[in-house]
Amino acid sequence: MRRSIKIATAAAISLAAVGPVSGQAARSCTELIPDLSAVGRESVAALSQQIVANAPAAVEACADDDTRLRLITALAALPESAGEARALAEELAATGNAQASNMLGAMHSNGIGGAPNDVRAAILFRQAAAAGYAPAMYNFGVTRWYGLGLPADRDDAINWLERAVAAGDPDAMSFLGLVLLTGDGIVAQRERGLDLIHSAVDAKGLRSASDAKSAYDYLASFAGSDGPGIPPHADTIEQTSRNYEAFLKLSAASGDRRFMIAELQLGPSANESREVLDRVVLPLRPEDRLAAWLTHAAVTYGDGDQGVYEQLMLYRGFLLMSPGLDIQPYIDTIAQRLGENAAADAVDGLDVNDATLVSRWQETTAECAASPLSVDAYLGCAKSEALAQLLWQRGFCPDSRQDGWTRCEEK
Questions:
Q1: CA distances from 112 to 7, 61, 67, 271 (A)
Q2: Is 266 within the bounds of a domain?
Q3: Torsion angle, CA of 230/201/250/36, rounded to 10 degrees?
Q4: Which of 24, 54, 89, 228 is the 20 to 30 Å CA partner of 81?
Q5: How many Cβ atoms from other residues are within 10 Å of residue 355's Cβ?
Q6: Has residue 339 been placed in a domain?
Q7: What is the pLDDT of residues 223-239, one digit of tens each?
Q8: Which domain holds residue 361?
Q9: Residues 365, 382: contact at Cβ < 8 Å?
Q10: Mean pLDDT on 185-193
């Protein structure tokens, strides 16, 4: 039976006043600084805003906080005291406090209070995970999956992700669910994978909406083929497409800049697209992401400048089809911020001659067809589609006789 999607509205979290209002008592530490162990996708921005706004008052109010975790959070929100926050987290983690170890690992992973250190972050996540702290099990699982700080080991990663799922961590459900759905390096378990993703959505996991978007995008790409078919939760390709669009919008609404870009494919006006892109090219601020930076490994979010740059390049073909919209200044701005040695573009060099563009389309199409159940090949399919859009823009049409493209006027 198909299961309906539960999409809750964003939690209404009012910003507390930085200082007491005349005639009112000063607010307590717990009123000023939220419990970061309950951060979800719908509250991360609101909680981050609350922390930053209240940080000056909270440093004093939380000075006698027994757990010290709220004081660390308040100090981390102030640039001049972020180093002190990391030092205090070190002291607390040394006492065996698993939540402090996880927070300290996230600070090292995200560069809060000092330079990023993936090795130290991995060690701290491992310590907190071994102590039974579920968010750390997830964090350590994804760092092992991607090889951050320690060599990549997918068997060990899945072991820790499964343990985090058993402990009820929604981010682990979402991550492992997408791995199982796509069969990325393991035997696919599609129905369980999609069940886990929906459970993560219901629990408001930090990455659940974006993983659900990717899941339904993946399933829709196999419509009418001999691919994996569509497991429960979407009886038809039409329902799958609706689910994809719903989760795409939810991901964009949660502030993920990559999916704000992807949502532009749904056809807004040029002015609306410019408004989105103006927001997208702004650097991430603590007010947007601090609650996540203090709880999750950096790999959780791909909407840093590199992810945004790659997404702009990937969707360049769609955006070029909007009359009057020039996206090159946005690409140039982020590329300049990344520096001269930025990683390769998602579609790897688009200012090439026509013959090279056709050749690259053929290469990515071959990657897509080689192993359609892997995430790497799925990304190859996305690149192929983006390149195809560019070929259309250049006046080319598909030519089945040559398994490639020819000028439309020549057909």
A1: 32, 22, 20, 36
A2: no
A3: -150
A4: 24
A5: 8
A6: no
A7: 555 455 555 555 566 77
A8: 347-411
A9: no
A10: 85
